């Protein structure tokens, strides 16, 4: 299986999860899902709100084209296929969350 975000293989021993292209909270409960490395999935949610994902990043091509995610992809492609690291919410995302 290949991660559609970073295009690296997802080996059986790697941490992975399903990503709802339209977040469940925004009506995507029964929508399309894709299997991603857990680190890739965490990177998406650390950088973008559910509303933003539903509004403008609801497909893999849009996610890959988003500048912050593109930088993450370039970085993670240098890692082993089973690489995992804890992912922290970005400073901008934390600030926005505090305001809401």
Chain-wise SSE layout:
Layout: E1 16-20, E2 33-37, H1 38-47, H2 50-56, H3 60-65, H4 67-76, H5 91-99
Antiparallel strand pairs: 1-2
Q: Into which percent range does the helicity of residues fall?
A: 40-55%
Number of DSSP strand runs: 2
The overall pLDDT, averaged over residues, is 92
Instruction: Specify Rg, calculated over alpha carbons.
Output: 13 Å
Low-pLDDT stretches: none
Largest sheet: 2 strands, antiparallel
Shape: globular
Please state how the strands of the largest beta sheet are arranged side by side: 1-2
DSSP helical segment count: 5
Helix vs. strand class: mainly alpha
Q: Tell me the strand percentage band.
A: 5-15%
Order of helices and strands: EEHHHHH
Counting structural domains, the number is: 1
End-to-end separation? 38 Å
Q: How would you sum up this structure, described in words?
A:
With 100 residues, the chain is mostly helical. The chain has one domain. Strands 1-2 form a two-stranded antiparallel sheet. The longest helix is centred in the middle third of the chain and has 10 residues. The model has no long low-confidence stretch (mean pLDDT 92). It comes from Methylobacterium cerastii. This is HNH endonuclease.
What key phrases describe this protein's structure?
globular, 5 helices, mainly alpha, two-stranded antiparallel sheet, 100 residues, 42% helix
Summed up, what is this model?
With 100 residues, the protein is mainly alpha-helical.
């Amino acid at each position: 299986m290949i991660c559609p975000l970073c295009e690296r293989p997802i080996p059986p021993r790697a941490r992975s999860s399903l990503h709802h292209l339209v977040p469940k909270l925004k009506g995507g409960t029964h929508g399309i899902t894709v299997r991603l490395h857990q680190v890739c999935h965490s990177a998406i949610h650390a950088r973008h709100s559910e509303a933003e994902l539903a509004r403008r990043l609801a497909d893999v091509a849009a996610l890959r084209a988003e500048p912050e995610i593109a930088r993450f992809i370039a970085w993670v492609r240098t890692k082993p296929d089973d690489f995992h690291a804890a992912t922290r919410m970005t400073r901008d995302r934390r600030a926005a969350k505090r305001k809401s």
